[in-house]
Known about the structure:
The chain is α+β, with helices and mostly antiparallel strands. The protein has one domain (2-90): Alpha-Beta Plaits (2-Layer Sandwich). The chain has helices spanning 13-22, 24-31, 58-75, and strands spanning 2-9, 37-45, 48-55, 85-90. The longest helix is centred in the C-terminal third of the chain and has 18 residues, at 58-75. It starts with a strand and ends in a 6-residue tail after the last strand.
Amino acid sequence: MHAIVRTYSGKGAKELFDLLEKRKADVEKLMRTVTGFSNYALIRTADGGVSVTVCKDKAGTDESLKKAKEWIKEHAANTGVGAPTVLEGAVLLHVK
């Protein structure tokens, strides 16, 4: 399994997470289309938020990154949010 964590902070990040909260059904539907999808979470922080995606392999998390970027470009470009800080790696323990 592979995970990717995207951290959004700074200009537009709070606005992005306000929009993601309002559109969470659409976001969930999109993320479930990712090949090898396992799970997904959105976490609000004091200055924006974090998304966590877990997939069967790196190809899936790469796909999720692409889809997230496209969704933001299409639906949240007006927030002015910058590119996220991205961390990714192999999952050592996955508890459901």
